[in-house]
Amino acid sequence: MFRHRGKGRTYQHNLKLASLLSCVAGMVNSIGVFSVHTLTTNVTGHFAYFSEQFFLENYASAFTFLLYIFAFLSGAFVSGLVMELAARRQAHTSYMLPLVIEIAILFAVGLSSLSGIRFAPVYSKWVSVALLFSMGLQNALVTRVSMSVVRTTHLTGLFTDLGIEISQLLSNSTLQRPVLLKSIFLKLMIIAGFFTGGITGGWLYQYFTLQTLFLPVTILLFAVWYDKMMFRYYHLKRKLRIKNGA
Question: Model pTM?
Answer without folding.
Answer: 0.91
